[in-house]
Design a protein that fits this description.
The protein is α/β, with parallel strands linked by helices. It has one domain: TIM Barrel. 32% of the residues lie in helices and 13% in strands. It is globular, with a radius of gyration of 19 Å.
């Protein structure tokens, strides 16, 4: 499909920096637990206390000590609690006191990471918080087949964050727009308008729209810059089910035009331990994807204070010694 004639041709962002990083860390910091779909009975005051106590300098130092070149950080997920203020979100959902933190943890962490030359990326679902009924109702409005109200509202929310953070955020990993038909339209809201909102403050930022647990990896829209690459139990090595084993390592740097990237678990589940692989396997798999021109993001648990779980630091250090960013 071709975009309307009045739109400029879309150009994907340059992903050379991601390819050269070779690997990075993904960290969940949530009011509940990853993938939880039950309402979260957490006082707003306690959420703000946790965010205020988050030690960005210490986390940045831990990542730097391990040689981590980029860090993907969760803004929030299903609970409706977010770790940065957003007036647009508050105006739409009308919840008081706001579940958006008073402290802008993303901005503070971005500054702390920048002192070590570490890039920051943001994780955010592509839909209303699943376990916050009030927020969902007000963000979704009167639903139609395309969820037009939700997409329009959500684009306004992410645009505010993007404009505020600017080049502090180098990329976005958007979770949950699994229903391709709701986004693949010529007219907005669509993948293009969503990507444009995410890039409003930094046109060079890179975007991925998660298509679920998919092996083989692929990109489902020209408006993303790198593959979301989410895998959990399967360590993907090939482009599909093959009988010709000479094709077992057939990934290239670009899949459907998007930079090859994998997001997977260093622990047993998102944000949880124990460490599941010996160092040799974590290092070897990272090198395997690197050899195809790709990068691997490893999920590592964070403590309540915002520090890396101590049991994961040895493997991070070993990976950092074995796989260094390209010059």
């Amino acid at each position: 499909m071709k975009p309307p004639a009045n739109l400029e041709p879309w150009k994907r962002a340059n992903t050379d920096w991601l390819m050269k990083c070779r690997w990075g860390v993904f960290g969940c910091y949530l009011a509940d637990t990853a993938s939880n779909l039950q309402p979260t009975a957490l006082p707003v005051s306690e959420w703000n206390r946790r965010i205020d106590a988050f030690d960005v300098a210490a986390l940045a130092q831990q990542l730097a000590d391990a040689g981590v070149p980029y860090f993907i950080f969760t803004l929030g997920q299903n609970s409706g609690f977010y770790l940065s203020p957003n007036r647009t979100y508050d105006d739409i959902v009308g919840i008081q006191p706001s579940k958006c933190s008073q402290r802008d943890l993303v901005a503070d962490l971005g500054r702390a990471l920048a002192r070590h030359g570490i890039r920051l990326m943001a994780y955010l679902p592509g839909a209303a918080p699943a376990s916050d009924a009030i927020a969902r109702t007000r963000l979704e409005g009167t639903p139609d087949e395309r969820m037009t109200a939700l997409q329009t509202n959500w684009e306004a929310v992410v645009r505010e964050w993007s404009l505020r953070w600017g080049k502090t955020v180098s990329g976005w990993w958007i979770d949950g727009p699994y229903d391709h038909a709701k986004y693949q339209h010529l007219d907005a809201p669509n993948y293009r308008s969503f990507a444009a909102a995410l890039k409003a403050g930094n046109p060079d930022s890179i975007v991925a729209f998660n298509n679920g647990l998919r092996t083989p990896l692929y990109s489902m829209t020209e408006y993303e810059d790198y593959t979301p690459g989410e895998i959990e139990r399967d360590m993907t090595v090939a482009p599909g089910n093959v009988t010709d084993y000479s094709r077992l390592a057939n990934y290239g740097r670009f899949l459907n035009g998007a930079q090859l990237h994998v997001l997977t678990l260093m622990g047993d589940w998102w944000g949880k331990g124990p460490v599941r692989f010996p160092d040799e396997l974590t290092i070897g798999y990272t090198k395997f994807i690197n050899g195809k021109g790709g990068a691997v993001s490893w999920d590592v648990p964070l403590t309540a204070a915002g520090l890396i779980d101590e049991s994961f630091r040895p493997q991070l250090a070993a990976l950092g010694r074995a796989v260094r960013p390209m010059a």
